[in-house]
Design goal:
By secondary structure, the chain is mostly helical. About 30% of the residues lie in helices and about 0% in strands. The chain has helices at about 15-20, 30-35, 65-85. The chain is elongated and about 55 Å long.
C-alpha cells in the first residue's frame, strides 16, 4: 500500500470523528472532544493549537432587534470566557469585546 492510496477526506465532522475512532487517520480536533474520548491521542503534543477567529454574523435587519442583541452579547461573552482556558485567548487584546459594524 502506498501513502496516496490511504488518503481519506470528509467535510462531515461525524464521518471524520468515526474514522479517527476506528484509527483510520489523523485530524485536527477541538481539545474538549479529543480529551473526552479514550484512545484518541495527541500526535504532536508540542505543536501549539491553531487559532481561528470566531465571527458572529446576522442579517442586517436583525441588528436592530433587542432580542438578537442580547443573544449575540451572551454568545460573545461565552466565547470570550471559554477561549482563555482552552488556550485560544492569550492576551486581552485578542479577547476584546466584539466590534459592532453598521452597513
Amino acid at each position: 500500500m502506498r501513502a496516496e492510496n490511504a488518503v481519506k477526506n470528509s467535510q462531515n465532522g461525524v464521518a471524520v470523528w468515526e474514522l479517527l475512532r476506528a484509527r483510520f487517520g489523523v485530524s485536527m480536533l477541538p481539545k474538549v472532544l479529543s480529551d473526552a474520548q479514550k484512545g484518541v491521542e495527541k500526535v504532536l503534543p508540542d505543536l501549539p493549537p491553531p487559532q481561528f477567529p470566531i465571527w458572529l454574523v446576522t442579517h442586517p435587519e436583525l441588528r436592530t432587534s433587542r432580542l438578537s442583541r442580547i443573544v449575540f452579547d451572551q454568545l460573545a461573552r461565552g466565547f470570550k470566557e471559554t477561549a482563555a482556558p482552552l488556550g485560544g485567548c492569550p492576551s486581552a487584546t485578542r479577547c476584546s469585546e466584539p466590534r459592532r459594524t453598521t452597513q
